[in-house]
Design goal:
The protein has seven helices and four strands; from the N terminus they run αααββαββααα. It is rod-shaped.
């Protein structure tokens, strides 16, 4: 009889210890906001959370890539806008020089302005960003990784923007076009004036087309950003469902366990006291 009573007491002590540990776990879950703290609590959920965490880290890297790509795209768009304005100004100067009678000083002034535009355009085409990378890619467009197996273009190449422009069947660069326009003004003949104006107009149209292409790149980057945000939100929700504490449910369970433990301890104290008297008797 005594052996059975002692075993029952030991079992009750172990039960109360387990309940106390469960209460401590619930208290930690409430204070930290996380119900999953150690792998032993739920091995399967722990593995899932670890996998989601890895996916979130990869998502963060892709999001950073897209953010930088958007910065490059915005800068390229700004430079293309300035190129447009400079080509418009070059056409205005050229038309002014070719339709009015200018003395040598007047021609020299227009030529100097066009040479300044030519230099400014070259600066815009070869400019580098804050990381020391060219605003426009050189030779080959660099793809930016934005998800598994997918890379997108942020900017066009300097060559595609400034070279290979068809002017009356002859491929020319922006620099060639402006150089030809300067020579036309200096020559001052009607034929060269017409050719110079044609070249500038074609060059301007080419820049406008490149602006449109850059706009398409920017829209694609915006779409990728939106998709990454959706995926990140889904991952956050899945992870939260696995490891975040449901405060209302956990506090209710905690209160119930505290009451159960208090009642069990009080009952154990009474039984233990009675058992002691039985042993003495």
């Amino acid at each position: 009889m005594v052996a059975i009573t002692q075993q029952s007491m030991l079992d009750e002590i172990r039960r109360q210890q387990q309940l106390a540990r469960s209460i401590a776990s619930d208290q930690a879950a409430v204070s930290s906001g996380k119900k999953l703290i150690t792998p032993s609590q739920d091995p399967r959920a722990w593995v899932q959370v670890s996998q989601i965490a890895q996916a979130q880290a990869q998502q963060a890297a892709w999001t950073a890539n897209v953010a930088y790509a958007q910065t490059r795209a915005t800068k390229a768009d700004s430079n293309l806008s300035e190129l447009n304005s400079l080509m418009v100004r070059a056409r205005e100067l050229y038309i002014s020089a070719s339709t009015t009678t200018l003395d040598e000083d007047g021609k020299a002034s227009v030529v100097a302005s066009l040479q300044g535009i030519r230099a400014s355009i070259n600066d815009l085409l070869t400019e580098k960003d804050y990381q020391g990378l060219p605003v426009f890619d050189d030779g080959t467009t660099v793809g930016v990784p934005v998800s598994r197996g997918l890379s997108v273009e942020a900017v066009g190449t300097r060559q595609s923007i400034s070279e290979g422009i068809d002017v009356n069947g002859t491929p020319m660069s922006i620099d060639d076009i402006l150089g030809s326009a300067i020579s036309s003004i200096q020559a001052g003949t009607a034929a060269t004036n017409d050719a110079g104006l044609k070249g500038i107009s074609v060059g301007l149209d080419h820049i406008i087309n490149e602006q449109a292409l850059q706009g398409v790149r920017g829209e694609r980057l915006d779409a990728v950003t939106s998709r990454l945000k959706d995926v990140d939100l889904t991952l956050t929700e899945r992870r939260g469902g696995l490891e975040d504490t449901d405060l209302t449910e956990t506090i209710t369970q905690l209160q119930g366990k505290l009451l159960t433990l208090e009642a069990a301890q009080a009952a154990f104290a009474r039984i233990n006291k009675q058992s002691l008297f039985d042993l003495i008797g």
